[in-house]
């Protein structure tokens, strides 16, 4: 059984919105602090090109950590899997996304997975292209293709706001550079990474990208295989094991779908073979996931038996 009507979805949104009361908007990136903590929107995109939605779905949000899945997919298409995983691992950390702790005890200094900031910085470092601009453009065109909107771009305001306040990410990058995991200039890498995180789109476009992952890299509407099934499978596996930070285990039990969240309050879900989900609810819980977004996914998973387990 699938959710086929906006009215049904609106009821779930009403119930889930209550959970936002216990959440807080991210403030460490000053531009994100302006978000309305009570807003909640969702879109579900089906492989036949139809979608259902509720809330302010025209509103654009920045991808933040959700972009880590997109950059990983592109890097895995451009480089050998062996090369990528010689620099970043495949294991969950159980630590918050920006934690530096385990890096120091790892020998060699290899971030545990591509969904934590240290690992994502390595993946961004591996993006191919000419300079920051060329690598950004390559990531943008890949994103635009999946979102089916050639206008998708990054928010200059959010990128700059994060660039000016990225002290911890700079620390991670310098650590990685010291240990020769990355070679490039740290300022350049932070410039590219903050632009990547500031790529913005609405819930519908986010759901569409989730749908491409759900369909193993195939865009069923255009008929184009956007990424090899193996790349989509690797990304979805990371979404299950590390996509919701150090709350991924609980999320797998309560919801049971590959999903990735970001500090802007976005969540991208990919229900294998069924649909893509895009959610925006900026008030975050103590683990940094959208409080209302998680509640909404729990309600939907129960009502429509979404769990893959
Ligand atoms: N841009 C954010 C950062 O690096 C992304 C983190 C997140 O969404 N959890 O801090």
UniProtKB/TrEMBL annotation:
Gene Ontology MF terms: glutaminase activity
Organism: Siminovitchia thermophila
The protein's enzyme class: hydrolase
Assigned protein family: Belongs to the glutaminase family.
Record-given protein name: Glutaminase
HAMAP family linked to this entry: Glutaminase
Keyword Acetylation attributed: yes
NCBIfam families the UniProt entry points to: Gln_ase (TIGR03814)
Source superkingdom: Bacteria
SUBUNIT field: Homotetramer.
Chain residues that bind substrate: 65, 117, 162, 169, 193, 245, 263
Keywords recorded for this protein, A-Z: Acetylation, Hydrolase
EC number: 3.5.1.2
Enzymatic reactions: L-glutamine + H2O = L-glutamate + NH4(+)
């Amino acid at each position: 059984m699938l959710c086929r009507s906006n009215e049904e979805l609106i009821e779930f949104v009403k119930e889930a919105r209550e959970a936002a009361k216990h959440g807080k908007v991210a403030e460490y990136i000053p531009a994100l602090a302006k978000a309305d903590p009570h807003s909640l929107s969702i879109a579900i995109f089906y492989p036949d090109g139809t979608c259902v939605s509720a809330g302010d779905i025209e509103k654009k949000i920045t991808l933040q950590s959700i972009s880590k899945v997109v950059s990983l997919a592109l890097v895995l298409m451009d480089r050998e899997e062996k090369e990528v995983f010689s620099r970043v691992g495949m294991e969950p950390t159980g630590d918050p996304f920006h934690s530096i702790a385990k890096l120091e005890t790892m020998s060699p200094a290899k971030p545990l997975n591509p969904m934590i900031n240290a690992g994502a910085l390595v993946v961004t470092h591996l993006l191919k292209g000419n300079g920051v601009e060329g690598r950004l453009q390559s990531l943008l065109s890949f994103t635009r293709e999946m979102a089916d909107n050639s206008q998708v771009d990054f928010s200059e305001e959010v990128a700059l706001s994060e660039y000016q306040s990225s002290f911890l990410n700079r620390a991670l990058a310098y650590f990685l550079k010291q240990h020769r995991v990355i070679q490039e200039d740290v300022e350049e890498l932070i410039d590219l990474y903050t632009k990547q995180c500031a790529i913005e789109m609405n819930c519908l476009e986010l759901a569409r990208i989730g749908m491409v992952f759900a369909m193993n890299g195939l865009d069923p509407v255009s008929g184009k295989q956007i990424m090899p099934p193996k790349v989509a499978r690797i990304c979805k596996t990371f979404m299950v094991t590390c996509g919701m930070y150090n709350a991924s285990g609980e999320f797998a039990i309560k919801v049971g779908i590959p999903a990735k969240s970001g500090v802007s309050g976005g969540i991208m879900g990919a229900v294998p073979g069924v649909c893509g989900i895009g959610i925006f609810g900026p008030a975050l819980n103590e683990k940094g996931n959208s409080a209302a977004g998680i509640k909404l996914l729990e309600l939907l998973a129960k009502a429509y038996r979404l769990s893959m387990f």
